[in-house]
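mind reviewing this stuff:

——
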Amino acid sequence: MQGVVQFVMINPKKQTEDFNFETYTNEIFYRVLDPIKTLYGIKNFNFYSNKTYSRECSLFIDVHEYRITFTYIPSDVSPQLKVDIAADFFLLQEPHLHVLKIELKDALSDGWEHCLWLEDKQAVAYSEVLYREVHSVENALRKLINTILFYRLGGNWWEEYMSSKLKNTYGLRNDPYAKRARSFRNVHTNLMSIDTKDLLEILTFKTYKVKKENVLDHSLSGDELSKRYHFIMNEVCNGNKIDSYTTDLTKILMNTVEIDLDFWKDYFEPWFSCSLDTFKGKWNAFSHDRNHVAHNKLIDDKLFKKYRSVMSDLLEIIREAEKKFNDHFESKTEKYLEELEKRKIQRESELYERQKMYEESGGEYLQEEKIVSLLTKKIIDTFYEIEEKVYYRSDIEIISVKPNIYETDKVFEIAHRYLDKKIYVTVESQIDGSQSGVSDLQLTLYSDDDIEETYDISFTNGSVSFDEDQGVYVPISEKDLDIAELSNLERDIDTLIENYMPEIESTHLAGFRCEECKKFAINIADDNGLDIGACLNCGHINGVGECTRCGIAVDSSEDELCFSCEAALLN
């Protein structure tokens, strides 16, 4: 047995001269026992050592022993109460250890100003499990990026395409690594050491090329940006410092280029089962929690379960993408390359004309794909806000579906893991990419299969005309986006979750199977609004035993003593 948790309470909120250490610790301990009895049962407990400022207790939860030591440190300035929990090492991932330490902390916090957490080996054990899985997810994405880009861009893709910022950062890092592990000094290791956030930067990386028509072209010398460029260059050539014009010059030069390669669209999107926004949302959440795991080490059971679920989802997406790419690579390589080249040429031709209309009209006229992209992003942003609010809950599953607003299909679904309830949203659309065209999109909210409400959003396109005198496209009317009803959709989904999907803890379920469906889904809690004995999977009412002494429901199909009464009789 070893110390596993240690924390200190500092400065009682009310200091009294007649403070009785033994009475106080008894009161605290009995407050803690009640919820533990309900959840797991207590076989025995005993304060086997009682000193003036130190008390030690042996507590048996289920069949496992814990030893709790209370040490009071009196002081005129800052009295303290130290709590130590000792247990066998193999109990570090047991849920009742987590409940014990949190219940003790919460019971004491009412009477003290501060709680200082000194040691928590259970949280460290959680982090060690999570960190191993973190590396699995990171390395899976590293492998996928290398596999695809080596195939599409060649073995020198890192050196030829990546920004100098990335190459310099990891060049400085990799050289010392190679010197330490000399067996690997002649292998390509750039992605092995790259930070989590920078893996996402590679997925979304873009290269640029000079536009055919730009402000440096002599034929556009009458353009405002071209005039500004010539003015700045005259100033610099006549002795003024270029630093004064950095912002303006950057803006002008950015206007001379357009996207050449879009790594996500050109190389990765065909293999991923989710949109870029969905993957970025999942990866950013993973990265945020990764830093918590790596540095903070304070991890409770809910975060442990939720983060494992997040990593499992990501790993499934990445491995599915890898499998799709490998299957395609093996069977259709030549055909794929030929088709891709045709699509690239066609896309570049269409893009040039569309980009010309967009730029010359001041961005007021959007093509159909940009309208779809704009509306899709607004929908995804709304659902992301909803998902963030229930991120911690392990009893519901949020199914992220890549929105396809061309089809009447589910774009968002929340399902309760225990209750036979679901909430989902479908979309119907009419997209009009013509000038002054109105694109309508209707979202329908369902509870189970009943329609709750519909929500309408719309986009009115701008219009342009070609001015033959100026030789450019000029705007006639402005574009307009109306998404006010998305906030109503978010509000109504929040309400449905609150009213129809109560949070169900695993401790609310019996340890025996339903008579009908044979699932471990029988409710034995009396405080969650559900009938005792009701199966959360099929609805069948099962017989649940009662305590022969106090009459409360017990985790058995037969009547027997509850844990509390059994403990009371034993003591």
About this structure: The two ends are 24 Å apart (CA to CA). Residues 121-211+256-360 form one domain. The CA atoms of residues 209 and 257 lie 5 Å apart. The longest strand covers residues 2-12.
